[in-house]
Amino acid sequence: MKELGKWFMDIAKYMVTVLLITTIFSDMNEPIIFSMVAILSIVVLVIGLVMVNKDSETNNKKKGKKK
User: Fold this and answer.
1) pLDDT value at position 38?
2) Fewer CB within 10 Å, N side or C side of the chain?
3) Cβ(49)–Cβ(1) under 8 Å?
């Protein structure tokens, strides 16, 4: 689950990078597209962070039970 969460975070980074490069090198006249990509990248980032956090909590609980 942790690897899938990292994958989601990477996808969010790539989306933001593409959005920034696109706005720098071309005239983005569509604020709706900018907003939708920004919102989607935030959602994907949050999903990734939640997955990584849950996996970390699960691993900590397993380590605590072994002691």
Assistant:
1) 93
2) C
3) no
Q: Count of domains in the chain?
A: 1
Does residue 66 belong to any structural domain of this protein?
A: no
Cα separation, 30 vs 38, in Å, equals 13
- Look at residue 67 and tell me if it is in a domain: no
Token pair 């990584």: residue: 52
pLDDT by residue (tens digit) across 15-64? 999 999 988 888 778 889 889 999 999 999 999 999 999 888 888 888 87
Range of the structural domain that residue 47 is part of: 2-60
**65 vs 43, more confident:** 43
